[in-house]
Amino acid sequence: MSNTHAVSADKPEFYLTEEHHPESSTMLGFWIYLMSDCLMFAVLFVTYAVLGRNYAAGPAPADLFDLKLVAINTAMLLFSSITYGFAMLRMEKNDRSGTLLWLFVTGIFGAIFLALELYEFNHLIHEGAGPDRSAFLSIFFTLVGTHGLHVTFGTIWLITLMVQVAKFGLVEANRRRLMCLSMFWHFLDVIWIGVFSIVYLLGVLG
Asked: What is its main location (predicted)?
């Protein structure tokens, strides 16, 4: 680690001459985090594979899920991934206002996704199909709810970055943070495609 030694009137001072958070180490650390998240979701999917048909004489997926609603919700998340890509393109052009616009649109799609998911959970619970009804519903609420929490945290992160970009512009630190959030957001898209295919689609059609 390189440093520079400056002598003041009172005592010597040391300070770093390189960037405090090098981009390479930040991105590597975030990739490691995503891999740990991947393992967590893998465990949840395996648990769903084991418990997903234990209905305890209760409702099955075909009795509960509205595929049209879930398809709309899936489209919202996929659209949000596309609009985040547009935000990154505007960032590469050093267009702060364009970046903020597309981040805002991404946040709207994310909020709609969360609202529809909360509506679905509320509807199921009022129908007597809460997480305590069967092993299938327990793992369903755990898997889908865990993904929903990630989208919630991602949306909060997105809003925070919008404030940072509006205040400080597209400085190197904000660009790095936007890149990390981009990986996180696309990762959530991939996980949701798995949820939609395995939990909803196979559950209703299988």
From this structure: membrane
Backbone φ and ψ for 130, nearest 5 degrees, come out as: -80, 175
Q: H or E segment at 58?
A: none
Cα distance between residue 3 and residue 18, in whole Å: 8
| E strand or H helix at 22 | none
Q: At what angle do helices 135-168 and 23-51 cross, to 10 degrees?
A: 160
Distance CA 53, CA 136 (A): 6
CA separation for the pair 112, 107 (Å, rounded):
9
Type of residue at 115: A
The tens place of each residue's pLDDT in the chain, 206 residues long, gives 444 444 445 555 554 455 555 566 778 889 999 999 999 999 999 999 999 999 999 999 999 999 999 999 999 999 999 999 999 999 999 999 999 999 999 999 999 999 999 999 999 999 999 999 999 999 999 999 999 999 999 999 999 999 999 999 999 999 999 999 999 999 999 999 999 999 999 999 87
Q: How far apart are CA 46 and CA 87, in angstroms?
A: 35
SS3 135: helix
Sign of CA dihedral 63, 68, 69, 70: positive
Question: What would the two tokens of residue 205 be?
Answer: 């059609």
Nearest 5°: the CA angle 72, 41, 162 is: 60
